[in-house]
């Protein structure tokens, strides 16, 4: 089954062609991502109106390149998938409408994909992970521990009470003048910093419910930054290192609580999976690797190109749904909010 996937929910215009041939991993035939970082950099975050216009400008070219890179025509496809939310509604409309139009003209089944479900199922595309598995979904807008029981079957074990993990990285980067998106910058600066110089809190540590809270940690970084100002390069490195060390401890502790909650209901998971943009973070991956070792299950993290937003994950989620006979109507409405 050959599916084209389109992603436009935030600040990446992306399209990809993926092949699914039964259970087991899929095959990414092309994966084109055009980031809009420069368009938003001056504002320190994504500006919805600018994002929607940039998607309009880029999408036709991105889709054409995805088909060309894969060496296929629209006719060869078995379906077209587009992210229908959650996300910035202007961008969602652009990708969703294009996906529907392509499905209509090529007379192919259409799949309206939940962007979070696409992140959640990426481990099946890359590694063929079997259900059920424990998932940490950590992006700029979402932080959830989920039991992934099947396609369309998700149980939320825990979530963040305030900021998302990626959002905390982005806000810390912004207050330290490091630009957007903040995660990669903070990770880079942390690598040459001293994580022990500043003592930051580990919110929710030891609690049984696998929830997160990050705003107190973010505020602690801001207060230390204000106390230490004017900041030199070493100060920034050390603040990043201290912040990231706290986040790594929190993630490991909260994921451990998630594993306990999972085991109580469903027994042993087939894997511990991490997905979403924050899954690109090396020290977070290492901490989860350690936890997976303790649990005696494999840790699965997508390759970096599939951690951030991309079209391959949308195409794959569409393929998984179409394989189950789940086809969506062409009047499927965009969903700015769409919890799993
Ligand atoms: O999944 P994603 O690409 O978009 C959303 O759906 O939000 O995630 C983007 C988020 C941003 O907050 C970004 O700062 C964060 O992922 N991120 C990272 C790293 N790379 C991206 N956070 C920590 N460390 C990284 N290396
Ligand atoms: Zn995402």
Automatic annotation (TrEMBL):
Compartments where found: Cytoplasm
Keywords attached to this entry: Acyltransferase, Cytoplasm, Iron, Metal-binding, Transferase, tRNA processing
GO CC field: cytoplasm
Cofactor note: Binds 1 Fe(2+) ion per subunit.
Entry EC no(s): 2.3.1.234
Protein role: Required for the formation of a threonylcarbamoyl group on adenosine at position 37 (t(6)A37) in tRNAs that read codons beginning with adenine. Is involved in the transfer of the threonylcarbamoyl moiety of threonylcarbamoyl-AMP (TC-AMP) to the N6 group of A37, together with TsaE and TsaB. TsaD likely plays a direct catalytic role in this reaction.
Record: residues binding Fe cation: 115, 119, 309
Gene Ontology molecular function terms on file: iron ion binding; tRNA N(6)-L-threonylcarbamoyladenine synthase activity
GO terms, biological process: tRNA threonylcarbamoyladenosine modification
Keyword flag Nucleotide-binding: no
Lineage: Bacteria, Pseudomonadati, Pseudomonadota, Alphaproteobacteria, Hyphomicrobiales
Catalytic activity, as annotated: L-threonylcarbamoyladenylate + adenosine(37) in tRNA = N(6)-L-threonylcarbamoyladenosine(37) in tRNA + AMP + H(+)
UniProt: substrate binding residues: 137-141, 170, 183, 187, 281
Domain Gcp-like: 27-316
Cofactor dependence: Fe(2+)
Entry protein name: tRNA N6-adenosine threonylcarbamoyltransferase
Recorded family membership: Belongs to the KAE1 / TsaD family.
């Amino acid at each position: 089954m050959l599916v084209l996937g389109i992603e436009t929910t935030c600040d990446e215009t992306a399209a990809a062609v993926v092949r699914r041939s039964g259970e087991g991993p899929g095959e990414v035939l092309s994966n084109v991502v055009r980031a809009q970082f420069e368009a938003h950099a001056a504002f320190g975050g994504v500006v919805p109106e600018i994002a929607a216009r940039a998607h309009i400008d880029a999408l036709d070219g991105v889709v054409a390149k995805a088909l060309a890179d894969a060496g296929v025509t629209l006719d060869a496809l078995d379906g077209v998938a587009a992210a229908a939310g959650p996300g910035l509604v202007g961008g969602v409309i652009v990708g969703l409408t294009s996906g529907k139009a392509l499905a209509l003209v090529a007379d192919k089944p259409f799949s309206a994909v939940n962007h979070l479900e696409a992140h959640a199922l990426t481990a099946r595309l890359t590694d063929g992970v079997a259900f059920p598995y424990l998932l940490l979904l950590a992006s700029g807008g979402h932080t959830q521990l989920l039991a992934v029981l099947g396609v369309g079957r998700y149980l939320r074990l825990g979530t963040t009470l305030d900021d998302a993990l990626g959002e905390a990285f982005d806000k810390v980067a912004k207050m330290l003048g490091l630009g957007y998106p903040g995660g990669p910058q903070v990770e880079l600066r942390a690598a040459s910093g001293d994580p022990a110089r500043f003592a930051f809190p580990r919110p929710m540590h030891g609690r049984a419910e696998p929830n997160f809270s990050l705003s107190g940690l973010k505020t602690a970084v801001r207060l230390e930054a204000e106390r230490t100002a004017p900041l030199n390069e070493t100060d920034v490195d050390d603040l990043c290192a201290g912040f990231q060390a706290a986040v790594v401890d929190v993630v490991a502790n909260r994921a451990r609580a998630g594993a306990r909650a999972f085991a109580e209901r469903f027994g042993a998971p087939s894997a511990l999976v991490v997905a979403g943009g924050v899954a690109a973070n090396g020290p977070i991956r290492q901490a989860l690797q350690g936890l997976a070792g303790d649990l005696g299950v494999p840790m699965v993290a997508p390759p970096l190109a599939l951690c951030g937003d991309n079209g391959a994950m949308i195409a794959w989620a569409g393929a998984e749904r179409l394989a189950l006979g789940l086809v969506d109507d062409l009047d499927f409405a965009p969903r700015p909010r769409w919890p799993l």
